Amino acid sequence: MTWKLFFTSSIGKKLIMGLTGFFLITFLIVHCAINSMIFFNDGGETFNHWGHFMGSNLLIRIAEIGLFVFLLLHIIQGLSLWRQNYRARPVKYKVNNPSSNSKWYSRSMGLLGTLILIFLILHLYHFWIPSRFGGMAGIRPLVETSLGTYNNEEVHNLYAEMLLVFQNNLLIVVVYILGVISLGWHLVHGFQSAFQTFGINHKRYTPIIKAVGLVYSIGICTLFGAMPVAIYLQWIK
User: Fold this and answer.
1) Among 26, 32, 56, 180, which residue's beta carbon has the most beta carbons within 10 A?
2) Residue-range definition of the domain harbouring residue 13
């Protein structure tokens, strides 16, 4: 079997989903840790400092390219698998009880993935694009102010942009919360599924992996969801 046939096969697609899933799980830990620094409630000094480090470090910028490649592959392969499974059974069974065979979120990965994609586009538009490309090709940050300089470089005020986006716009907050909830459901299934893809599926270890995945999913998504809520309610200023 050639590499092309392998990676376009069902097994190859699931392998890519598992690999990219592991990468994204790791990325979410780092991203959530940096974002959680807004809870220092120090006017954004700590958050902006580390946000600047993430945006100016060469190795991290290179890793971002890999992240987008993996993310794009994850989305494409996920939609492809969903379409492949749907086409394999275009006519539904007359008698079908899906809830007895699988969880709701495992049957709705296509829908959840689409909601997450919408959330991701908004997130990139609000924060990543202005931060990385502000001043280029007419792209400007939402907020022009900065806290000052670190190592003789101006630090982009991402904290002020978070306040502007979330503080007076309930609709945006709701959209972000829905996106985070969708991410949570996606992770609950995807965490254990990534291990299963590589054959890590044993009656002794699988319950532990599921438990860790549940704690991880709830923890990550609670922190992500708490940020816009805390800003909107002005617990953070």
Assistant:
1) 180
2) 8-88+106-232
